[in-house]
UniProtKB/TrEMBL annotation:
The keyword Hydrolase applies. It holds the Pfam family Abhydrolase_1. Residues 27-127 form the AB hydrolase-1 domain. Belongs to the AB hydrolase superfamily. Epoxide hydrolase family. This is AB hydrolase-1 domain-containing protein. PANTHER family: EPOXIDE HYDROLASE (PTHR43329). One of its GO terms (molecular function) is hydrolase activity.
């Protein structure tokens, strides 16, 4: 951690917190998901820096020490890609190896066709590119959230995240470290569902008094770091990414049309 430097970069109308290690001719850009932060990448940042790479990991808009615009519509991939392009320019980075996870992977998928000149290579985990650009299964005749609801029901987490304030109220009832532990240690191959009458707060109460074996990549210190940060900022910024899903199809069509000049 002592090797990681922190800075604030003004980009695309917001202040973005950026963590980085060393200068170097080649840069690796790490993009985190939900509910994570730049902190998720620190072992990889230090390891690759030891090999001579410059490593950079921002808190995406709405997360951690980066600004969180109030309007839900300000969290599309096009806003976040704009943040990243401006950040790279401000740091004097012309091109980077890009590594993404979860929402970070989705942003990386969009960065490639929008600014291919700034992506040297891409490594994405957990999220494939899907037709229409939603990165969630969808029926072309329906909006993405409607498709998810039809396939998985109202208890699917993406559906549960849609109503502003509702899930935030549920999260606020939960013990923060237990909530983060629930997010980062749940391993169920089925679609993630949380019944409304139980909620995430109810699920965290089921963990009370139980011993959860943490994976080697996650420590109690890590959980407490995330819990402290999200207790400070709340989750609304990260949740707004899910609330923008229905904007992705029309925006993706505009993107593809502009790239193809049609």
């Amino acid at each position: 951690m002592e090797k990681i430097e922190h800075a604030t970069v003004r980009t695309n109308g917001i202040n973005t917190h950026v963590a980085s290690v060393r200068d170097g001719p080649d840069t690796v850009l790490f993009l985190h998901g939900f509910p994570e932060l730049w902190y998720s990448w620190r072992p990889q940042m230090v390891s690759l820096a030891a090999l001579g790479y410059r490593t950079v990991a921002p808190d995406l808009r709405g997360f951690g020490s980066t600004d969180a615009p109030l309007r839900m519509e300000s969290y599309t991939a096009f806003h976040v890609v704009g943040d990243l392009v401006g950040m790279l320019d401000a740091l004097g980075i012309g091109q980077a190896f890009v590594v993404g996870h979860d929402w970070g992977a989705i942003m990386a998928w969009y960065l490639c066709p929008l600014r291919p000149d700034q992506v040297r290579a891409l490594v994405n985990t957990s999220v494939p590119w899907c037709p229409g650009g939603t990165c969630f299964p969808s029926d072309p005749e329906k909006k993405p959230v409607e498709s998810i609801r039809a396939m998985y029901g109202y208890d699917h987490y993406v559906c549960r995240f849609q109503e502003p304030g509702e899930i935030e109220e549920d999260f606020a009832k939960a013990d923060p470290p237990k909530l983060i532990q629930l997010f980062l240690t749940t391993r169920n191959p089925g679609p993630p569902r949380v019944p409304k009458d139980l909620g995430y707060s109810g699920r965290t109460k089921l963990l009370e008094g139980s011993q959860v074996d943490l994976p080697s990549s996650l420590t109690e210190e890590d959980i407490n770091y995330y819990a402290t940060q999200f207790s400070r900022t709340g989750f609304t910024g990260g949740l707004n990414y899910y609330r923008c899903l229905d904007l992705y199809v029309p925006l993706s069509k505009l993107m593809l049309a502009s790239r193809l000049n049609v």
